[in-house]
Amino acid sequence: MIVQRGSFGAIAAVLVALVFLLSGITKVARPSLWRSEAAGMGVHRFLVPFVPWVEVVLGALLVAQVQRHIVAWFAVGLLVAFTAIIALRLSQGSHPPCACFGALSAKPIASGNLVRNAVFVAVAVAAALL
C-alpha cells in the first residue's frame, strides 16, 4: 500500500488540531484560571480573551481540512509566538505556570516546554508543506 504525501500532511494537521482544540477548550472552560496564568506569562491583556477562541477555530479548521496548507501556516505562527513567550520568560529567570493547556498544565515552565513546542512546530510545518 502506498501512502500519498498529502495523507501525511492531513494526519499532521489533525495532530496539530487536537493540540489547539485541547488547549483552547481547557482555557475556555476555566476563564479565570486562563486569565491568571496568561498574566503570569506576560500575555497582553487585550489578547487574553481571544487566544482560546483562535486556538479552537484553528483546531476546527485543521480537523476539517479547510484550506489546510494556509491554516497550518497560521498554526506555525501562533506556535512560534507561544514558544517565543516561553523562551523570553525562561531567559528572564521566570518560571510561571504554563498557560498552555489551561488547568491541565499548572506546572511552571521549563526547557521541556520549548522542546515540546518545537515538536508541535515541526508537525505544523509538515501539515503546511505536505
Walk me through what this model shows:
The protein is an all-alpha fold and 130 residues long. 71% of the residues lie in helices and 0% in strands. The protein is built from five helices and no strands.
Beta-strand proportion: under 5%
Largest sheet: none
Count the DSSP helices.
Answer: 5
Q: Name the helicity range.
A: over 70%
**Unreliable stretches, pLDDT < 50, 5 or more residues?**
none
Strand element count: 0
- N-end to C-end Cα span: 18 Å
Mean pLDDT: 94
SSE succession: HHHHH
Q: What Rg, in angstroms, do the CA atoms define?
A: 15 Å
Backbone structural class = mainly alpha
The best one-word shape is globular
Q: What characteristics describe this protein?
A:
130 residues
Show the helix and strand layout.
Blueprint (H helix, E strand, L loop, with lengths): L4 H25 L1 H11 L9 H13 L4 H24 L19 H19 L1
Helix pairs in contact: 1-3, 1-5, 3-4, 4-5
